Amino acid sequence: MEDKHSKRRTDKPWGCYVDYFRSNNVVFKKLLILPSEKLSYQYHENRTEFWYVALGKGLLTLDDCEIDMGVGDFILIRKGEKHMIECVEDGVPVPLVIYEMQCGECSEEDIVRLEDKYGRTEE
User: Fold this and answer.
1) In angstroms, rounded to a whole number, what is the distance separating the alpha carbons of residues 85 and 67?
2) Torsion angle, CA of 61/102/56/13, rounded to 10 degrees?
3) pLDDT(59) > 70
4) Average pLDDT of the segment spanning 82-94
5) Helix-, strand-, coil-residue percentages of the chain, each rounded to 5
6) What is the Cα–Cα distance from 26 to 96, expressed in whole angstroms?
7) Which of 24, 44, 64, 122 lies most in the core, judged by the most C-beta atoms within 10 Å?
8) Is the pTM of the predicted complex or chain greater than 0.85?
9) What string of DSSP letters covers 3-57?
């Protein structure tokens, strides 16, 4: 049986994430988004997410509205809200680090991709 409390890194085309805690109803993880990379424009049917920016700068798209995000900023993303964040450079390339808490039915399969820089909309 997997230890749900151990750190586990998962590489993605935009960077990686590290699980700190994962259960069926709660997930806590760190996202590391590389400079000029971005997550897919997506939504979730079964979970809500809370994001806290720990490092870097990002441009969040939330239901077609753009919001600048930086260190110390946070946001609640509700079920069904379309969202995407891009790591934006401000002179020196710095990754965007976000701590994410998921609540609800937490599954990596609960991602409906609307647009994706890496061609993953068909998954």
Assistant:
1) 9
2) -80
3) yes
4) 92
5) 0, 55, 45
6) 23
7) 44
8) yes
9) -TTS-EEEEETTEEEEEEEE-SSEEEEEEEE-TT-BPPEEE-SSEEEEEEEEES-
